[in-house]
Amino acid sequence: MTELSLVQAVNAALKRAMAEDDRVLILGEDVGIDGGVFRATDGLLVSFGAERVLDTPIAEAAIAGVSIGLAAQGFRPVAEIQFTGFAYACIDQMLNHASRLRSRTRGRLTCPMVLRAPAGGGIKAVEHHSESPEAMFAHIPGLKVVMPSSPARAYGLLLSAIRDPDPVVFLEPTRLYRAARQDISDDGAGLPLDRCFTLRPGRDLTIVAWGAMIKEALEAADRLAAENIDAEVIDVATLKPLDSVTILASVTRTGRLIIVHEAPMTCGFGAEIAARVCEGAITSLLAPIERVTGYDTMMPYLRTEAAYMPNVDRILDAVHRMMAFA
Amino acid sequence: MSGRELEISIGRVLDSEGKVVGAMPNFAREPAMLLRLYRALVLTRTFDTKAVALQRTGRLGTYASSLGQEAVAVGAAAAMQSDDVLIPSFREHGGQLWRGVTLKELFLYWGGDERGNDFAGPRQDFPNCVPVGSHVPHAVGVALAFRLRGEQRAAVCVFGDGATSKGDVAEALNMAGVWKVPAVFVINNNAWAISVPREKQTAAATLAQKAIAAGIPGEQVDGNDAIAVCAAVERALARARQGLGPTLIEALAYRLCDHTTADDASRYRDDAEVSRHWPAEPLVRLRNFLTQAGHWNKAAEEALLHECSNAVEQAAADYLATAPQPVSANFDFVYATAPAELVEQRNSAVARAGAP
To answer: Is the ipTM of this complex over 0.95?
Structure first.
């Protein structure tokens, strides 16, 4: 067991995957000698050489596109996009090609690649470095979309993403990269890419979140416990495919659902979860579903960023509204 | 930049009348190879004519003809080894046929059936790429895979003059140059990107010179001359296999057809311009050369037309007799294993369609 931060867990998973499978390659901007701007690929160049850790020119569309060519040829490329705002340039390649290669060739060519990118705000970064694009990727058939919320889940989910036979977008909450450490056994065990994780059981309401918002959700649950409100907290972890079963089972028991995400509200992934719960558990609902999300604004610059981010107080307000409703 | 670095040479072997105007490459000394090239051009045009006819009668989807540009893809494919990989745009029917994609598979694809991309022949070749130029980075990835595995294989990517304006193409050429991957990029410069003529696509004097900025060799070739295209691609492939990196080849052709069957080029292009380009088309010059060299005659021509027509008619009949895929097929290839939510949707769609 070693104590690792989330970014170190990502590094450990990459190293493990590369050691166990020669087909795994890393490519991206500054992933080589620099070890990535967040050091996620630190030391990999030394361990595996320049043939397996490729610094690319600054060309995000081509980073995704080249990965598709490599994947079709049987490699397992793990591409790093330096910051979230730059991942949008990859959407054309991921949507028109990576996600469809299997389907449009009826299985003749496939695309086992991972597109990694840091995501989310709260790190006082310059503009275009703090976005949450998960819903845009989750809307694309053929992709899987994963967002871990702890070092252990980052390790296990990334290993499974790399081993997966289909393209996976793996969004790493930048705010959690160094926020906490966790004992991790580097045993190569993957975590399932089709399950939500119930982090805290509860009777009175269900808080569903992912990525950095798990921290807020758990803190809110602690505060609510002091008020004798027993909140269940679910980490979605894999947004696509969505484990509706776990969420529906929880809401059926608690009767109340709050969804927390950093991305803007409109057409955010919370809307999908709310719709699933309306379809599958509406008769169990004791109060309207609440979404505590980023606002439908641009991600603000760092001086007013905090006012954009969902936080414990906003979650508590929503909970109190729901508890007052019924 | 010196003028010498900007100089782009043009490769030609036959002029439009079939007279030899350049050095005959070694492969062209074999009449069998030239006859094979000619047959491929004729077969491509026969397919093309039938595909347009099927579309006009509601039996094929929107179709992108390769009329007048047959020599580009056929010439490129003819230079390739079977284990090289072709990454085409959507006008490379002739190259696909040369490499073993069947006429029926082409009809299936253009008829709206994904099985047309499940080539029985060149299993690693990419399917057509409709979004312009976005396949060019894939060729860099494929070529990088060959280099990393130490294989003597190369990727050949074909795209149009319009695609050269795309960022994907600039990114891909640049990356290919940095990594010296074994790739050959062939531009089918057919002078028109739907309604936008070549001179409105870029202020660059040639498209081949885009190679200069990427630090790779670039050259022009007469795209109506199958021998010259094949020779240029063959030289580029030899360099690629020697580890000398990628090449950009601009094949100068002309789109004698509409952009697709959904297009009406008379809205933006004079018939007189099209007529002026007909004498330069690729079939007649090779036929003239073969005839003058004593390798071809009227009887052989008639036999070939008959053979190609039979093959195309048979393939069209086979395509038309092929039942559409079951609805379930749309769900079965989204992922290696369909997630539970998709299985549910699949079952519902299948039940509605009343068949598995």
So the answer is: yes
